[in-house]
């Protein structure tokens, strides 16, 4: 598995296809986050775009190899394990972006509530922001796993399905990503740092299930 992870990481880095999602995430932060804004609000804004970014990274990793190259790698290590390595590399890349974004946002934001009356602990806010980023990265990875190869092979179907699923993951009531982001925004009104443990557990379970389905179908095909 270590060799597969190194191989997929090398493919991702050398392909330079990671640049568009990274630039998209940087643009979100550059446009929506400004110095001196309430820290919890800003952390919520920084976490939300990780859902589409993570799904995009999954699609990149899952389609990096041409079929003639994918076959030997799957034969050597097993198609399920080879696909799992793709998903794990995409998840790690999305989490890495989320960590960088959360640290930068925490550093430049105002550690206070929206009305400036309640001070917010920088460490607690940063931790909550990291947890929210992890929730969004996990859920985005699950969305990507279900909306790309091998479940959806045609880009004409896969890309619209991915966009619709990421939108739903951010707006549907009960979604872990929506809950984590909304808790940060709501907490900013009173200066209360929320706990994202329950959304994190839910996102982890959903992503694990989506990953298992994708890897099982990969093994059959």
Characterization of the model:
This protein is mainly alpha-helical. The protein has one domain (2-220). Helix content is 78%, strand content 0%. The chain contains ten helices and no strands. The protein has helices at residues 2-15, 19-32, 39-47, 50-62, 67-77, 79-108, 122-146, 155-171, 176-190, 197-220. α5 (67-77) packs across α6 (79-108). The longest helix is centred in the middle third of the chain and has 30 residues, at 79-108. The protein starts with a helix and ends with a helix. The model has no long low-confidence stretch (mean pLDDT 90).
The number of distinct helices, counting runs of at least 4 residues, comes to 10
Oligomer: single chain
Flag low-confidence runs: none
Overall, the morphology is elongated
Question: What is the domain tally?
Answer: 1
Overall strand count: 0
* Percent helix range: over 70%
Any key phrases for this structure?
221 residues; mainly alpha; 10 helices; elongated
Question: Helix and strand layout, with pairings?
Answer:
Layout: H1 2-15, H2 19-32, H3 39-47, H4 50-62, H5 67-77, H6 79-108, H7 122-146, H8 155-171, H9 176-190, H10 197-220
Short description:
Helix content is 78%, strand content 0%. It is an all-alpha fold. The chain is elongated and about 60 Å long.
């Amino acid at each position: 598995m270590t060799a597969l992870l190194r191989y997929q990481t090398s493919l991702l880095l050398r392909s330079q296809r990671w640049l568009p999602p990274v630039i998209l995430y940087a643009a979100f932060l550059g446009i929506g986050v400004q110095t001196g804004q309430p820290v919890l609000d800003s952390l919520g804004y920084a976490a939300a775009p990780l859902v589409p970014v993570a799904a995009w990274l999954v699609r990149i990793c899952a389609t990096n190899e041409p079929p003639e190259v994918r076959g030997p790698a799957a034969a050597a290590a097993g198609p399920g394990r080879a696909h799992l390595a793709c998903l794990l590399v995409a998840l790690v890349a999305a989490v890495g972006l989320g960590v960088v974004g959360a640290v930068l946002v925490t550093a430049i934001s105002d550690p206070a509530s929206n009305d400036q009356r309640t001070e917010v602990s920088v460490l607690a806010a940063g931790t909550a922001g990291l947890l929210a980023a992890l929730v969004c990265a996990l859920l985005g990875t699950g969305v990507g796993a279900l909306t790309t190869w091998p479940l959806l092979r045609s880009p004409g179907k896969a890309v619209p399905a991915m966009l619709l699923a990421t939108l739903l993951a951010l707006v549907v009531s009960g979604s872990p990503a929506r809950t984590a982001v909304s808790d940060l925004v709501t907490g900013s009104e009173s200066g209360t740092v929320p706990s994202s443990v329950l959304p994190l557990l839910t996102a982890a379970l959903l992503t694990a299930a989506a990953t298992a389905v994708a890897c099982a179908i990969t093994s059959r095909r």
